[in-house]
Structure prediction request, 347 residues.
Amino acid sequence: MRPEPRLIEVRKNVLKQNDVVARALRDRFRGAGVFVVSLVSSPGSGKTAFLERTLTLLRPNYRVAALVGDLATENDALRLARSQAPVKQITTGTLCHLEAAMVQEALEQWDLNQLDFLFIENVGNLVCPSSYDLGEDLRLVLISVTEGEDKPLKYPTIFNSADVAVVTKVDLAVAVEFGWKTAYDNIQAVRPGMPVLKVSAKTGEGMEEYLSFLAARLIELRQAAVV
Amino acid sequence: MHELSIAMSIVELAEEEAERRGVQIDAVHLKLGALSGVVKEALLSCYEMACENTPLKGSRLVVEEVPVVIFCPSCRAQRPLSSVQLFCCPECGTPCSEIVQGRELEVVALEIQECAPNPV
Prediction:
């Protein structure tokens, strides 16, 4: 006789393992007083150029480092190393996103007390990284003017998982007839209240405002740690 | 495409439960939020693949899709979102960023058979 099927309640988060590691990372970052920023975007939106400029500009005043995820190459790490900041490549193989355990492994030998800012550049992908917490304090989603204004509507999940939108390559905005208002409205439609920054890594436009924003967040983080 | 690694995590999780309870699993029930970043159809086809060579081979994945519900500060009420492309209260139009549900990626139940000892 075939036994009757029975339903048992379980209630388990599928990504629990990632969340546990991410929480441990966040505790470690807090303990060391380092402000951690992750960057997500589609491939080619200018994450590496933006990050190279960020590291170069921050380095005279802050202790900075970066982890960079890529499917196969170490090209991005080599580019970022030109900023003279410590940079480590995480090669994900066929995996389309970073997971907390990869960040943990990459940071194993690092003394985080020696850092003010740590940047984590995710694999270029607007879908998969949205599900994985990396323990970061701030998630930036980049959208370049050459991609079109409707990216937020096409990928609402990742925009919703991010804290700040950064519009990149603004030096090309006129050439590609980028519609600022449409882009801004689309970002606000999928993530009401999200701050939007405009930058050009090439000309430096908007970088100062972005760096002051980061500096303010670092002060907030450290004040919160003291209280 | 990260559905395969998600499917493998689901299988792993279910396998552990099955082993712990000494049962055989017919189906895994999953809650999938519209903001989970996971596509149902892709997950279903990956699930079959992930079950290969495991005790879950032949089991089903039953997906319950969870719509996004936001909290509207003007209405002071929870409201279902009509589209993930517009985070506004469907009643009064106020932009809403507080998400009450819709990020779920959760195994909620297992359909099982008690394992009878094999007849000798």
